[in-house]
Amino acid sequence: MSLSAGGYGQNMLPVAATITGIDRLTDKDCVFSIRLSKGGILRFRASQFVILSLFGIGEAPISISSSPLDSEKSFELCIRVVGNLTRAVHRLSVGDKVGIRGPYGNGFPMERIEGRDVVIVAGGLGLAPLRSLIRHVIHERDRYGRVIVLIGAKRPQDILFKEDILLWEANPSIEVHLTVDVAVPPWDKHVGVITKLFRYVDVDSLNAVAAVVGPPIMYRFVVSEILNKGLFEGNIYLSLERRMRCGIGKCGHCQINGIYLCQDGPVLSYMEARKLKEAL
Amino acid sequence: MGQAIGDVTVPDLSVDIAGIKLVNPVMTASGTFGYGEEFAPYVDLNGLGAVVVKGISLQPKPGNPTPRIVETAAGMLNSIGLQNIGVERFVEEKLPFLSGFGTRVIVNFFGDSIDEYRELAAVLDGADGISALEMNISCPNKEEGWLEFGTRPELTYRVVNEIKKRLRLPLIVKLSPNVTDITTIARAAEDGGADALSLINTLSGMAVDIETRRARLANVIGGLSGPAIKPVALKMVWQVFNAVKLPVIGIGGIMTYEDALEFMMVGASAVQVGTANFIDPEVSIKIVEGMKEYLVNKCILRIRDLVGVLESEYD
After folding, report:
1. Mutation test of the interface with chain B: which of A36, A163, A171, choosing the one with the most B Cβ atoms within 10 A?
2. Do A152 and A234 belong together in one domain?
3. Active-site residues of B: which are they?
4. Which chain B positions have a beta carbon within 8 Å of A178's beta carbon?
5. Pairwise CB contact (< 8 Å): B299 & A164
6. Phi-psi category of A49—alpha, beta or left, where left has phi over 0 and alpha has psi -120 to 50?
7. Do A46 and A93 have their domain in common?
8. B11 near A CB under 8 A
9. Among A77, A120, A173, B217, which is most exposed with the fewest C-beta within 10 angstroms?
10. For A134-164, what is each residue's pLDDT tens digit?
């Protein structure tokens, strides 16, 4: 059995899955390792999402935080407590069962970034889907040019995937810059909004791509910094978060003008996104 | 990076064996690293997970007549005969030097009777600066007609049980590969109270000089080590890992970090590097560095997450 993005009529049923690991990242975020039952394999791309269901409670869309190249057998979801379902997920333990359907969404166009410099900009929870991309790029590092990762968080204690970030910092083949809006001692990294980190971005601008995920307020300022670096609008990819319900382009919750983000997105190039009113 | 992001070390190479924490999973195998001090001018001992010192007996031993080392294809035969300075001098002269380092000290010991094992273990148990004992129950070089405890489950059980019940230090039992089914010996050691198992010791072997029609070792037979035995060792570590609950230390022909990771993936919680020390005294440090780089490149936070991850099926 294998789940993969498909057309109408596929992947609409949740399949049973088991929580195989839980790692606490912050006071409100945990990473859940999940394995599909009966040896099922989730075939996905970076920046795709699944719809997680809890029996008797409901469903929620969650982006995948592990890389497709990490493991065939399991994948990771970073879940923040924001409401009913996510609160219930945080009460689960290793061995508990959940439902998974998907993956949904277009995912990140890996084939279009091959051979290019890559700038990855993650604000807050935006690191959850971008961690998938970062790991993907590290796993096949030779296929890309320079890789620069900019990460912003509110406070040091809000930084997601701290251990991963340390591991990326230890990796001489990528550059990582980290900032917080509000420093708390003994913080020794940057302080200020994420746009301050662009002074460290030195790329082959005509041939570089950027991937940006963060809170809505971040996009306008970050995109303007990236354009200042000389990147083309078509080479700037944004992942737009809207409330996704069905995941299959039916319910209309994620609709922006004529597109359904759950299918046509969540990843759009800035060239596409800027044409959509309300998108940014 | 400051404490604010977390006071953790990544990648985390530390492992726990038999209740002791090692900074990394790479140790030097008994009999290939002397008493540690011979290598100290060339290797930063603090960079090792542990130093396993050469086998110690109650009385000093001169070892076998020479020649007692011969090179073979991708390996080495030795019949040193457990030459050592005896426990008294070891504790007085060698141990204080090793205790001065941050690395763990594991003392390999052997005897020719349960009484000798017991008496020896008591002396080592009372000495300062030892983290664990490794019990040799199998050395094939011994020629004094002693029973090879490690080739019979009931003898293995008895000697391990007799020693362990009086011992304060964790006990690692080093298994011989020269047996029909290593899992029965491993279970006997587990039942006897071992805290961990290390394997494999050398495989029995010999080599002949066709000009002189003599064995190349004065002792005729010796123990084969080096890359030649790695596939055999891997298989046995995998078998034992699946047969017992104890942590397993993998030994056998490890030359590179890739070799070490193979052992960990089949179930070794730590490894020992032996014959490779004779080629490059710094090989263990290089293996640690290689492991670190592998983890960083694979986005893996902890080396212990690789233990026993061997996929059970092809699909």
Report:
1. A163
2. yes
3. 139
4. 5
5. yes
6. beta
7. yes
8. yes
9. A173
10. 999 999 999 999 999 999 999 999 999 999 9
